[in-house]
Amino acid sequence: MTSPGDGAPADATADADAVPQGAAPDGTTPGDAGPAGPVPGGPVADVLLRPLVAADLDALEDMEEALFGGGAWSRASLAEELAGPGRWYVGAQDRASGELVGYAGLWFDGYDGQVMTVGTRPDAQGRGVGRMLLDALLDHARELGAGDVLLEVRVDNEPALRLYERAGFERFGRRKGYYQPENVDAWTMRRKV
After folding, report:
1. From the CB of residue 80, how many other CB atoms can be counted at a distance below 10 Å?
2. Parallel, antiparallel, or unpaired: how do β-strands 100-108 and 87-94 relate?
């Protein structure tokens, strides 16, 4: 994952892109975007999608650390992203507990949208939160008049790749060593909106 300050988007799989070792029975791994919707037969998340604000920084920082470890964005980077020009960040708030269980961000440059991140707290993965967040980003990109939506995803994040492919994204390039400090390649993906 890269810092927002250096111009490269975060792993769009976001959910924090842990390497898919030790996958859970539902196909998710710690830090992945989960499957492309709820786990069959599993509970569906009851969440409210809402814009993220500076008051969410504590929860965002905790999720970043849990999901991305050493590649997590700093609190300052998260704050920059929330306030940055052309940025739109949305959170998934659990209706029962009121806690933030997921987040996602989009950057619109006037032509295309770029998924900056999609993250779901580990205990909320596999319940469709990642797909709801991704759908919200796509809807927002459509409202803005974006032609395409682009993203980068770790080549080893199979659950996130499934999520994006089921949402209509196609691979069109590979970026060597994109994710640092792990030096992991990324697939670049695109979808028309």
Report:
1. 15
2. antiparallel
Three state DSSP letters for the chain: CCCHHHCCCCCCCCCCCCCCCCCCCCCCCCCCCCCCCECCCCCCCCEEEEECCHHHHHHHHHHHHHHHHHHCCCHHHHHHHHHCCCEEEEEEEECCCCCEEEEEEEEECCCCEEEEEEEECHHHCCECHHHHHHHHHHHHHHHHCCCEEEEEEECCCHHHHHHHHHCCCEEEEEEEEEECCCCEEEEEEEEEC
Q: How far is C-alpha 101 from the chain's CA centre?
A: 12
CATH class of 4-22+31-192: alpha beta
- Strand 100-108 and strand 113-120: the pairing is antiparallel
23 pLDDT band (50/70/90 cuts)?
A: very low
Distance CA 71, CA 116 (A): 14
For residue 35 the two structure tokens come to: 């499957």
Give pTM, 2 decimals.
Answer: 0.80
The angle that helices 57-68 and 75-83 make with each other, rounded to 10 degrees, is: 120
